Amino acid sequence: MSVENLSVASSTAAKKGVVIIGAGLAGWHVIDAIRAKDTEIPITLITADSGDRYHKPMLTMAISQNKRASDLVRASGSEAANTAEVTLLANTQVTDIDPVSQTVQVRSTAQSDDALTTIGYEKMVLAMGAHPIFPKSLPQDLVWHVNHIERFSQLQEKLAAGSQHVAIVGAGMVGTEIAEDLLKAGHKVTLIDLNDAPLSQMLPAKATARIAKAIESQGIQFLGGYQVSAVTRVGSNDDDSEDAEKLQVDYAPLSSDADNADTQPLEPLIVDHVIASTGLTVDEQLPAAAGVEFDRRTGIVVDATTLRTNAANIYAIGDCMSINGVACRYVAPLRAQAATIADDILGHEHSGYDHKPPMIRLKNKAISVMVTGVPQASGNWQVKTESDDELIMDLLDDDEVVSATVTIKAPAVPKA
C-alpha cells in the first residue's frame, strides 16, 4: 500500500514490523526476499526520493543508447509498493533513529512544515547507499555526478543539445565507463585522474597501461597524473544565458620536481560540463544515531554471516555496509544478502551469508577487463599470460596463494 502522508503511515506502522531506509536496489531486494517468504509482515519503506525501481549500473551506458530516465524505470515507487503491499514513505527524510525505543523520526520533504513523525520498528534494515565524494575543488553546484537517476536525467537533458565537451574527474570503473558512453554519444571527453592510468587503485601498472592505451585509441583525452585544483564558471560577455556559460577546469601535475620548476602553468580546460567520479562515502548521521559501528570510507560494519550490525535488530545491506573492513559496493551479491536478511528477520533457519567477491567487469567496448577475487594495485602480481591480444595476471598473497586475477583482452574485430 503506497501512502502519501505521514499520519496514515504512522498509523500503519503502529503495527511495527520491518522498516527499511533506502529504496535503491538493496532496499527493494530486501522487500522482494521478505515477500517471497511472508506476505503478511508489515513493511515500511522510507526514501528521500520517489522510490522508483531502476537498475543503477545502466546509468553509465544509457546516454549513448539514447535512453531517458523514464526508459530505465521498471516501476514507479507507488506501483512497486502496491505490488509488494508495503507502506512507501517517498520524499521523506529520516532525522533520527532511537535504537533503545526502536523508533525512527521522519519528516516529509514534500510538505512546507517541519513536523516530525515517529515510527516504530521491530527490525530495521539500513539500505541508504553511499553518496559521491566531492573534493573542495569540485563545487557541487557546478559539477555533476552519475550516481542517481534524477541527476542522470538532468545531465542528459543538458547533453541533448548536441555535441559538447565533458571533463570527467576520476578514472575508476565508473569514470572510465562514462567516458566511453559519452564518446559514443558524440561528445568530446577529457578524463582526468591522479594516477597515470585508469583503474590504477585496483590493478597493477602493466594492466592499467593497456586500459589507458585502449581508451585513448578511441579518441578520449586522458590526463594521468594530474590534480584538478578548481572548477569555475566562465561565460560570454554578450550573453548571460545559461547556455552560453562554460566551465574552466584548472589542473596541475600531482607532483613537481626540480626539472619541472620552470614549466609554464598549464592552460586550463574550457568545457561544457564536469562530472565527478571521485569515489563514494557513507553519510555518518544515521549510523551515528543508530549507534552502529561505522567507518565513513567503508561503511557500516556488519556480521559477515547474518549481516546484523552491533545494534540489536538493525541490519545493513549494499553500498552502505562493509564486511571484514571491505566496502560491499557491487550489485551481484545483493540478492544473496537480501535473502539472508529476510530469513534472519523472519526467524527462519538459514546457513548464513557466504560473502564471495563478485566478478568485476568493465563495461567498456574498447577493451575487455575482468577481475576476480579482491584486487589491489600494490602486491605481488605475476604475469600468467602475455600477448598483444591478452594479458592475464594473478595477485599472490604472502602464502603464494592466488587472491585475485585480472584478464584483459583486446576486443574482437568484427568481420567485414
Q: Any overview of this molecule?
A:
This protein has 416 residues and is an alpha/beta fold. The chain folds into three domains: 190 residues, FAD/NAD(P)-binding domain (3-Layer(bba) Sandwich), CATH 3.50.50; 128 residues, FAD/NAD(P)-binding domain; 50 residues, Enolase-like, domain 1, CATH 3.30.390. The chain is built from nine helices and 28 strands. The strands form eight sheets. Strands 5-2-1-9-21 form a five-stranded parallel β-sheet, sandwiched between helices. The termini are far apart. 39% of the residues are buried. About 1% of the residues have low confidence.
Index terms:
single chain, alpha/beta, FAD/NAD(P)-binding domain, Enolase-like, domain 1, five-stranded antiparallel sheet, 28 strands, 21% helix, globular
Produce the secondary structure layout.
Blueprint: H1 6-13, E1 18-21, H2 25-35, E2 43-46, E3 53-54, H3 69-72, E4 73-75, H4 77-84, E5 87-89, E6 92-98, E7 103-108, E8 117-120, E9 123-126, E10 131-132, H5 149-159, E11 165-169, H6 173-184, E12 188-193, H7 205-218, E13 221-224, E14 226-234, E15 246-253, E16 269-271, E17 273-276, E18 280-281, H8 285-290, E19 294-295, E20 299-301, E21 314-316, E22 321-323, E23 326-327, H9 334-346, E24 360-362, E25 368-373, E26 380-386, E27 390-396, E28 402-409
Parallel strand pairs: 1-2, 1-9, 2-5, 9-21, 11-12, 11-17, 12-13, 20-22
Antiparallel strand pairs: 3-4, 6-7, 7-8, 10-18, 14-15, 15-16, 19-20, 22-23, 24-25, 25-28, 26-27, 27-28
